[in-house]
Design brief:
By secondary structure, the chain is of the alpha+beta class. Helix content is 68%, strand content 9%. The strands form 2 sheets. It has a 5-stranded mixed β-sheet, covered by helices on one side. The chain has a two-stranded antiparallel ribbon with strand order 1-3. α1 runs antiparallel to α2, α3 packs antiparallel against α4 and α4 packs parallel to α5. The longest helix is centred in the middle third of the chain and has 85 residues. Bound molecules: adenosine-5'-diphosphate. The site of adenosine-5'-diphosphate has 20 residues, from α8 and α11. InterPro entries: HAMP_dom, HATPase_C_sf, HATPase_dom, His_kinase_dom, HisK_dim/P_dom, HisK_dim/P_sf, Sensor_HK_Regulatory, Sig_transdc_His_kin-like_C.
Length: 488
């Protein structure tokens, strides 16, 4: 799984859960709100009815008292009670009415209005000195009817209020269930997302970090496990490949060290044997024997020097520090120098040099180009049998100077040609023939490229090889010394 997919899936899942939770809560809140409003309307109506009942009774009491005492104080109290009764009646009329209880409510209102009207008439009559005791039973009846009608409405309203209350309780229970359910789902979703993040990101990252730490501490076999998100897997694979490549490089470097030590031993042994013959406690051999001994010492020291210089150059090229000191030189001169260098040591091979009559001017670092040619000639000698011919040819090919080194040696299989210039590569066909480390051609190709040129190879197994160094010709820098060179 990719990081993008995991993040998108977790975000989408959490968003859906949050949306569900929010809609659930909104729905239950609005239902609750509706039910509570209905309940509070009912409570208001119940209160109005109860107030009506109370003020009906107060009015009745004050009316009777006023009739009995004819006292203006009591008449005022009765009128005040009437005002309140009428106000509460107004309040009840203003309350929203459902279809079911509209009839009962209207009847109760009519009864109360009727009672008030009868009482008002009676008060008027009382004012004309009728006996209050005579009139009381008539109004008591009206009051009873009004009270009974109010009681009926009240009991209906109370029953409705109880149902509404039960509904509110039910909605409350449901919203609690929705809240707890959605909170648990969200928590679960969050835990799931965290678990996935730990499994797919945290633990694989930790494993990669541990592998890197172990590698850094010297465990070169440390490898990162291949798990988690695709991106982390790719990092683990890249780390493992890098670790394997470094291990392989290390193995090859150790091989190079062993090979260099082995190669150095030959000239050193020759030096030691020669020097052993010049013991301090013995008289020196005559001059005619001394001279070849010193010549041999010189040759072996030069060999060691060449090997060490090559090694230092390789290290420089690897570190990107190859410095070129350009000079104008003739390729024929450089080819001749290298052949002359090898001729005395390669008595088992026939070294031939073929040079053109025209100058072959190059702008190059002669030391480095000499090193490249040395390597090609040394390989031609190394990988061809004794008595074989090694041919060095200089030719001008258009805008290039080509210096070819050919031999009739073991040759190289076509499938190995492409890898010849890789570091540490050695063709299987030549491994039995001579020791080597596979760095010379790599360094030679880097030097050729640094001069804007290249080395090409033509070879077939058992038929020999031709390595050709091609460099751009320089028209500006004509070398006067070059004109004196002859082919040989
Ligand atoms: P080394 O000779 O030390 O192995 P080089 O980089 O000079 O390293 O050469 C790389 C490989 O190319 C050699 O090991 C050998 O397999 C092959 N090679 C180079 N020159 C020749 C040649 N003239 N004939 C056959 N094989 C060659």
């Amino acid at each position: 799984m990719k990081l993008k997919t995991l993040a998108a899936a977790s975000t989408a899942a959490l968003a859906v859960l949050s949306l569900l939770t929010a809609s659930g809560l909104t729905l239950s809140t609005s239902t609750m709100d509706r039910e509570v409003t209905r309940l509070s309307d009912m409570v208001r109506e119940v209160r109005s009815i109860m107030e009506l009942e109370v003020h009906l009774l107060i009015h009745e009491r004050e009316s009777v008292r006023a009739a009995l005492t004819q006292h203006p104080e009591h008449a005022r109290a009765r009128d005040a009670a009437r005002d309140k009764l009428e106000r509460w009646l107004e309040d009840l009329r203003a309350a929203p009415v459902t279809e079911e209880d509209a009839g009962a409510l209207q009847e109760a209102e009519l009864e109360v209005e009727h009672y008030l009207a009868v009482r008002a008439d009676q008060a008027h009559t009382d004012g004309q000195a009728l006996s209050p005791v005579e009139s009381s039973p008539v109004t008591a009846d009206e009051a009873d009817h009004a009270y009974a009608a109010l009681e009926e409405v009240l009991s209906t309203k109370l029953a409705e209020a109880r149902v509404a209350r039960a509904r509110v309780d039910e909605v409350k229970r449901r919203s609690e269930a929705v809240s707890i359910g959605s909170a648990s789902m969200l928590l679960l979703g969050l835990l799931l997302a965290l678990w996935q993040a730990s499994k797919q990101i945290y633990r694989p990252l930790l494993a990669i970090r541990t592998a890197i730490d172990r590698y850094g501490a010297g465990s070169h076999d440390a490898r990162a496990p291949n798990g988690g998100l695709d991106e982390l897997r790719a990092i683990a694979v890249a780390f493992n490949e890098m670790a394997a490549a470094l291990a392989e490089q290390r193995r090859k470097q150790l091989g190079v060290l062993a090979s260099v030590a082995h190669d150095l031993r030959n000239p050193l042994t020759a030096l030691k044997l020669t020097v052993d013959r010049l013991k301090p406690d013995r008289p020196l051999p005559p001059e005619e024997r001394l001279r070849p001994m010193f010549a041999r010492i010189g040759q072996e020291v030069a060999r060691c020097d060449r090997m060490l210089t090559d090694l230092i150059d390789i290290a420089r090229i690897e570190g990107g520090e190859l410095e070129l000191r350009y000079e104008e030189r003739d390729a024929r001169e450089l080819a001749r120098e290298v052949v002359e260098l090898y001729r005395p040591t390669a008595d088992s091979h026939e070294l031939r040099l073929s040079l053109p009559d025209e100058p072959a001017p190059l702008r190059c670092d002669p030391l480095r180009i000499g090193q490249v040619l040395n390597n090609l000639v040394a390989n031609a000698i190394k990988y061809s049998p004794s008595g074989g011919a090694v041919q060095v040819t200089v030719a001008r090919e258009g805008a290039e100077i080509a210096i070819a080194v050919s031999d009739r040696g073991v040759g190289i299989a076509p499938e190995d040609h492409a890898r010849l210039f890789d570091r540490y590569f050695r063709a299987p066909s030549s491994r039995q023939v001579a020791a080597g480390v596979g760095l010379g051609l790599w360094a030679a190709q880097r030097i050729a490229e640094a001069h804007g040129g290249r080395i090409d190879v033509m070879s077939a197994p058992g038929e020999g090889s031709t390595f050709t160094l091609r460099l751009p010709v320089t028209e500006s820098g004509y070398c006067t010394r070059a004109a004196r060179l002859q082919s040989s």
